[in-house]
Each structure stands twice: as C-alpha cells, then as structure tokens.
Amino acid sequence: MANATTPAVPEAGRSPAAPDTATVRTMARRLLAAGAAPPPRDELAAMTAVLRENIARLIPTVEALAETLPEDDAPRACALACLGEARMRLRLGDGDTDALRLSVAVRMARTAGALADHHQTLRRTP
Question: In whole angstroms, what separates CA 126 from the centre of its chain?
C-alpha cells in the first residue's frame, strides 16, 4: 500500500493524463484566498490528496512540453525548476497538527497552480 507521499503508479507504465488546469486553479485559489477561513480538517485532507494527485499528473505533462524547447530557453528553465520543486512537495508528509496540515495544503496549492501556469505557457510556446 502506498503512503500519502507516494503518487500512484500509472497502469502499464503509461503517463497519467494531465488534469484540467482550470479545476486545479479553482482548488488552489480556494486555499490561497486572502482572509479565507481554512476548510475543516476532513475537507482539507481531501483537498490535499487531490492536489497531490494533480501535481503527480501534471509533472510528466509539463516535463514533456519543456523537453521540446531548446536547452537555453527561459520558459523551459523555469518549468524544469518548478518540476524539481513539485517533486520535492510530493515528498512532504501530511503534517501532524492542524497548522502543519494547512501549511502543506497551501504549499501543494501553490505548486499545483505554478504547474498549471507552466502547462498553459508551454502549450502556447511555438
């Protein structure tokens, strides 16, 4: 059984389909909204799990898009740096206090939002 920090392995070695970036952004905005009350513990845990899944699904997609660009391309470099950060975030535990759980969820939201931005940017890059 995989723990909460291990993304699911795609079946038959296939890359999972990238999530809908609009959905990723909506969830991220909800956690990052200034002055918003944190969601209840159960809802926060569910949101964090979904964000983890979305990050795990966006990583191979963004990486594939970045790899098509020249090595000296700035958007490629930015995306690859973000991918390193995203992989690090997936190794975070869930936290053992409410404050830590919220902190992890916020970090996941920021990372998922950044990956969605890179996905959008790289898809438009000629």
Answer: 24
Contact between 122 and 66 under an 8 Å Cβ cutoff? The reply is yes
For 73-120, write each residue's pLDDT tens digit: 999 999 999 999 999 999 999 888 999 999 999 999 999 999 999 999
Burial 12-24 (b: 16+ CB within 10 A, else e): eeeebebbebeeb
pTM exceeding the 0.90 threshold for the entire prediction: no
Q: By CB neighbour count within 10 A (0-12 exposed, 13-18 middle, 19+ buried), where does 54 fall? A: buried
For the segment 110-119, what is each residue's pLDDT rounded down to a tens digit?
999 999 999 9
Each as own residue / partner, the long-range contacts of residues 30-37 (CB below 8 Å, 24 or more positions apart, any chain) are 30/109, 31/105, 31/106, 31/109, 32/106, 32/109, 32/110, 32/113
Nearest to 115 by CA among 70, 58, 63: 58
How far apart, in Å, do the first and last CA atoms of the chain sit?
A: 42
Residue 23 zone, left/alpha/beta (φ > 0; ψ -120 to 50; rest): alpha
In angstroms, the CA 7 to CA 24 distance is 17
